[in-house]
Sequence to fold (237 residues):
Amino acid sequence: MAQQSIFGRISQLAKANINALIDAAEDPEKMLDQMIRDYTANIREAEAAIAQTIGNLRLMEEDAREAEEAAAEWGGKARAASQKADSVGQSGSAAEADRFDKLARVALRRQIELESQVADMQPDIAAQNEIVAKLKDGLEKMHGKLEELKRKRNELVARAKMAEAQSQVHDALKSVDMMDPTSEVSRFEEKIRREEARVRGQAELAASSLDAQFEDLEEAAEDLEVEARLAALKGDS
Fold:
């Protein structure tokens, strides 16, 4: 009963659908960590139970082997007693011959009993061997499932870290979009352009004022020329 319970539990664990469990978990990484701990503990427990089952099987096999050896030994004793009975009977001692034949019969009965024990043990030994083989196979699958769990856990952690890094990059890009430094440069450039325009305006204004002054000087020179010529005319008269 205990062996069947162990085998059933191993089969259940080995057939576990990890992907379905991950999909149903709120925190897959924690769930996988817990599953790894549980699987490791179950594997240790299963290994201990299987070791005990194998030990019991080896004891049964040893008992069967010892019974076979004892049966062969009693068979040898029966043969020796029968030969002794024949030898004594040929010498004329019927009583001694009968005594050795009785010993031969006792040995043969003991041999038959032991052979019967061995025969009775064979089905149990065969069944135990089958159970042990299934338990070993189940245990091997559990080890494979544990490795799958570890791979899934590592893959999940790596994917989570990658997703986190991508999220950080995305957030950084969003902040760049919201606070585009090039827009600040553009505003600064526009400010400089306005300042340059203002300076050009001042320069142009200054230039026009200077032109006006020169025009005033030219007009004054012309007036002087007119007065000088007028004076010359008066002198001639």
User: Anything to note?
Assistant: The mean pLDDT is 79. Helices lie at 2-14, 18-24, 28-90, 94-178, 181-236. The chain is about 95% helix and 0% strand.
